[in-house]
Amino acid sequence: MKRDTTSLLGGMIWGVALSWAMGCGGALETPENAMVTSDTSLESRQELASAEQVASPDISEALADECSGAQGTGTYKGYVCPSHNFIITQKISCAEARNNCVLNANANPGSSFFCTWNDRVIYRRDVSAGACNSLVCAAVTGTGQYKGYVCPSHNFINTNAISCQEAQSNCQLNANSNPNSSFYCTWKGTEIFRLERTAGICPR
Length: 204
Known about the structure:
Strand order of the largest sheet: 2-1-3-4
Distance between the termini: 34 Å
Strand content: 25-35%
Largest sheet: 4 strands, antiparallel
Radius of gyration: 18 Å
Helix content: 10-25%
Number of domains: 2
Order of helices and strands: HHEEHEEHEEHEE
Number of helices: 5
Structural class: alpha+beta
């Protein structure tokens, strides 16, 4: 099946710099060699709770949407962003996993958290914008919808049935090719890339 790589501007080509810059009144920039990185420091955190510890029942009810349709048990993975894997637990329900992730996040308000259950994102909290982006594609599988934005609000592409890594790589390519613009991209509704040339210009 041919991949849907339809750009809302009609100028998006995979592996090639965006051609929409001319149409937006600016000259198309040439790619930069260096990848843009950001150093995110984490505050000291308290002791993390085990998977056996769960939040109160009223919180469990509020988590229903994130685990909608989830059945049986699976593998729960929890991360303190940008890279610390604090727990891997098997044979646990989605609701129990998300409860535990929320419990740890609430106990460590200065840290960013990202948790999955059977490769499904069940909780995310970025204390610093984009703090967990580096974890998402490594933690999920399958395909989904990719949306890319030139901040503050220009949606330059919507693409279906694409892997998270392909989406993230394409967003990075476009950001590198347009060094005067800010970029923000999502996959299945989860943020996977953020580069703000002007602080706070992209949505949170």
